[in-house]
Fold:
Amino acid sequence: MLLLISPDGVEEALDCAKAAEHLDIVDVKKPDEGSLGANFPWVIREVRDAIPADKPVSATVGDVPYKPGTVAQAALGAVVSGATYIKVGLYGCTTPDQGIDVMRAVVRAVKDHCPEALVVASGYADAHRIGCVNPLALPDIAARAGADVAMLDTAIKDGTRLFDHVSPDTCAEFVRLAHAAGLLAALAGSIKQADIGPLTRIGTDIVGVRGAVCEGGDRNTGRIQPHLVAGFRAEMDRHAQELAADVTAVS
Ligand SMILES: O=C[C@H](O)COP(=O)(O)O
Structure:
């Protein structure tokens, strides 16, 4: 499982750089503009320059409306600025067809410029609170649009977690659907260390984290702490080893 950490700008990206050996993807966000709030192009560029070259930069395009042209142009801005994972939160899409329209436009805009960039279609585990597409529709939306990753995060950051809205069994189904469609599956949403075990067992490819690696566990007032990133990774490694031992014991 890959660890994606979301700094809110260049200063926190430098803290991520101090913990670079413990993380896999640096995800540029602007949390005060929403769960998947988009940051400025120049911030994406500065973060790209601030972290080791072998660490991919992800950038969120925002909690987007159903406006394929607008979103495609924003996605191009993110990839031109140096991001190679382009994340789109389908906040304003109320049907799968709307999600596919937006994601197809994004895939074309991104891949015309950088064919090897990965496009992430993100839905929300708490979709029922905001009226957007059902979480389990995301793998099909992503696959039909030609995206690479299906993701779930939470839209409302009020302390509730991924598993408060979508059970581990439903997350397992999400991962299964994503894999059956040839996609990677990414899960996020106030993930805590206690959630790593179930996420590992269901075969999650990417776990996205911010609050759990911020001072005081607070994604808004706390700042990312390198030692918390290292601790989170250690717990991931422990669960991966346990799972590998279980698989060996069974076979
Ligand atoms: O993409 C991952 C998010 O930034 C997760 O943030 P969170 O752990 O504070 O919910």
Notes: Residues 4, 6, 27, 29, 153, 157, 188-191, 208-212, 219 surround glyceraldehyde-3-phosphate (CB under 6 Å). Residues 2-250 form a domain with the TIM Barrel fold (CATH 3.20.20.70). The first helix runs from residue 10 to 18. The chain has ten helices and eight strands.
